Amino acid sequence: MTLALRQPSVIPGFGITLGFTLFYMGLILLIPIGAFLLYTAQMSWADFWQAVSHRQVVASYKLSFGASLIAALLNLVFGAIVAWVLVRYQFFGKRVIDALVDLPFAMPTAVAGIALVTLYASTGWVGQYLEILGLRVAYTQLGVVVALTYIGLPFVVRTVQPVLEDLERELEEASAILGANRLTTLRRVILPALLPALLTGFALAFARALGEYGSVIFIAGNLPFRTEITPLLIVAKAEQYDYPGAAAIGTVMLLAAFVLLLLINTLQWWTARHSRR
Amino acid sequence: MSIEIEHVNKRFGHFVAVDDVTLSLPEGQLTALLGPSGSGKTSLLRIIAGLEFPDSGRIRFHGEDATDVHVSRRGVGFVFQHYALFKHMTVFDNVAYGLTVQPRRLRPSKAEIRNRVTRLLELVQLDWTANRLPAQLSGGQRQRIALARALAVEPKVLLLDEPFGALDAKVRAELRRWLRRLHDEIHLTSVFVTHDQEEALEVSDRIVVMNQGRVEQEGTPEEVYDHPANPFVFSFLGQVNLFHARVQDGQARIGDLALPTAATGDQPEGHGLAYVRPHDIEILADDSAQGALAAVVEGITVVGPTARLELKVAGARDLIHAELPKSRLRSLGLSQGSNTWVRPLNGRVFVEPGRTPADPESVGM
């Protein structure tokens, strides 16, 4: 093993880059998270359990994870379609649409939240018509999903786009010549090639939605048990100087998110291995 | 199944890819579409396959109009230059693809599919790769798998787009001999596109030489090589030396040397260009032969058993290329700078009406 490490390499610098990576990750990521976990660890088990299993908190977990999942799934489908259109077709205004995709990254989330609530309130441009259909978006769980979908849009588009650009046209032509129709080609040739990128985009959109705060709080209305997201509860607790309570809920969020992302990454690694080897 | 191409035109914007091509490709033969890049040979092949639609003209398979038949129903096999294998599928699944995508009522049973794929993999001598992924195979192996995949649907016509273009020289030569043998076994009407004249001459039953979207000549490899229809075909099929000649009484004269002009009938008299292959240039030790031209050896390259000479003929601007066996070179005792005599033995003269020997743009001598 030592021998293998001492092998001279054409791409030197493994030691120094790995060292730097660990140091950097430690400084930026591990130390704050560690401190935060340490803070939580000072609580007694009973206090911790009481803080994290309160009915109101449990309701917020359900909303946060559920709405994030739905939003990420929506982005998976529509993001893939947007990426497809941007890569495959030439049309007037394509560059503008391409630039618009990144807007949710750049806009302050509070601005987005206020814009969304203005649009979707029962007097808003969109909301008044939805009202006729019996659909209420503002101050409902649907509103939470809308906000989370908005902020997650770029992730799937930007991860799928380059992979789709590299996908050879000839693969689709080969499939067609062999007698497959478009749907079969999509299902058996295109989707398997895009799957790793789709999963990555999904994971990113999901993770982003879980932690989102600014754009949601305006449109959600923050009704206890109904439209309160977990990050809001954490902020509320912190504002009441209940730091241990906030830290406890944060810990649950952190662990759950970590486990979910690990799962998605494993799935992604597995599909990548099976589609690109 | 024969293929008839009738007055096919195709443009991409202002670029004319295929310019009023009419061709008939006989059943069971291996035809090469040969031409430089941009000559329209790949566009024509893709139109036959149904991957492109002609702006006008018809494609018929065995007399039946196939112009508007969708690519997935045309019953053609297609082999791409860069294989286009499905990377996430095993070799077996790749070859089976055309069978497994058929509608349920037409689809062969699992056992039948297994049987056919195994037979095809044996045909391309790669049955041991069935469970591998394409990335684990070499380029030559991948192209053979691509061929097996194309044959799996039992196409009536096999089309190959520069099938050996991405392979190295040795694999290329092996694979094209193998393709020839395979074609003799399965006797499918096949068309392949190539820019490599050697490949076309070696493999095909017929050659169609294309240039700027048009067919310059078609015929057997021998016809095309020995009786090129025009200067383009002559210079595209191998290296060529140009000599200016005066055409008179059905003969072309280069200095004191007379060459018969190939074309018959009323031959306009005047200026002509004689096209002579390097191996048709005789190198002489002295000037005893009639019509020999004095030359100086400018360079010698020995490639295996053949020696290639670059010669400067007095009064000519361009160098003359000659080819001779290495043994002959040795017996002549030539080296760089030697004086020698050359004589074109064989050549083809194309008369250029309206040009005179005094034309300032003359080539050669």
Feature tags:
heterodimer, A: 277 residues, mainly alpha, MetI-like fold, B: 365 residues, alpha+beta, Rossmann fold, OB fold (Dihydrolipoamide Acetyltransferase, E2P), 2 domains, six-stranded mixed β-sheet, five-stranded antiparallel β-sheet, 34% strand, disordered C terminus
Q: Your description of this structure?
A:
The complex is a heterodimer of chains A (277) and B (365). Chain A is mostly helical and 277 residues long. Chain A folds into two domains: 13-42; 53-276, MetI-like fold (Orthogonal Bundle), CATH 1.10.3720. In chain A, helix 2 (14-41) runs antiparallel to helix 14. Chain A is built from 14 helices and no strands. Chain A is globular. Chain B is α+β, with helices and mostly antiparallel strands. Chain B has two domains: 3-235, P-loop containing nucleotide triphosphate hydrolases (Rossmann fold, 3-Layer(aba) Sandwich), CATH 3.40.50.300; 239-351, Beta Barrel (OB fold (Dihydrolipoamide Acetyltransferase, E2P)), CATH 2.40.50.100. In chain B, helix 2 (91-100) packs across helix 3 and helix 3 packs across helix 4. The model of chain B is unreliable at 354-365 (pLDDT under 50). The A-B interface holds A 168, 170-171, 173-181, 184, 188-189, 192-193, 274-277 and B 49-51, 71-74, 76-78, 80, 82, 84, 86-88, 97-98, 101-102, 133, 135-136, 149-150, 152-153.
Write the layout of secondary structure elements.
The complex is a heterodimer of chains A (277) and B (365).
Chain A: H1 2-6, H2 14-41, H3 45-52, H4 55-88, H5 94-100, H6 103-106, H7 109-120, H8 127-132, H9 141-166, H10 169-177, H11 182-211, H12 214-220, H13 230-239, H14 243-276
Helix pairs in contact in A: 2-14, 3-14, 4-9, 4-11, 7-9, 7-12, 9-11, 9-12, 10-11, 11-14, 13-14
Chain B: E1 3-12, E2 15-25, E3 30-34, H1 41-49, E4 56-61, E5 64-65, E6 76-79, H2 91-100, H3 110-123, H4 139-152, E7 157-161, H5 169-186, E8 189-194, H6 197-203, E9 206-211, E10 214-219, H7 221-226, H8 231-236, E11 241-248, E12 251-254, E13 257-260, E14 270-276, E15 281-284, E16 293-303, E17 306-313, E18 320-325, H9 326-332, E19 339-344, E20 348-351
Parallel strand pairs in B: 3-8, 3-9, 6-7, 7-8
Antiparallel strand pairs in B: 1-2, 1-4, 4-5, 9-10, 11-12, 11-14, 12-13, 14-20, 15-19, 16-17, 16-19, 17-18
Helix pairs in contact in B: 2-3, 2-4, 3-4
